[in-house]
Structure formats: C-alpha cells, structure tokens
Amino acid sequence: MQVRLSAPWTDPAGREWVPGDTVDVDAVILAELEEQGMVEEPEGQASGSGETTTSPSTTTKPTDPTKIGPGPGAPPADDTGN
Prior knowledge:
Elements: E1 2-4, E2 9-10, E3 16-17, E4 22-24, H1 27-35
Antiparallel strand pairs: 1-4, 2-3
C-alpha cells in the first residue's frame, strides 16, 4: 500500500525517507507509522480509515432528471390512488 510520509522515517531495511516521500508498506508497518503520526491523510479522508487513495480529478455532470428512476426492468408502480 502506498502512503505519503509526514515525517522522516527509516524503514526496516535501513533506507532513510523524508517527509513527502511516498513509500510502499504492508499493513503492519502502516499501522506503526499511523500510530506515530508519520502518515499524511489525504484531503477529505477521515483519519483512521487505513486506506490511502489517489484519484484523478474528475468533473461530474448533472444527472438528467428524466433518467432517474427504477429502470426498465422494474415492475410497474403500485397505483393505490393517494
């Protein structure tokens, strides 16, 4: 799993990393780094989720109101006459 460091860190193999570096770690190392507060949280992500994700910036277009509904395979609505 890829995480971005917020503090200097030396990995178990002895390699030194600086804040801002992205490193590939397993779940155990990730837990240790999070416990020490050495992992940056991506914007908009709640702390403690255990996942770091990156996604390309996307723009969403509004949904056409005529295309909202249960879909063509849905049974007909129950018309009980409110």
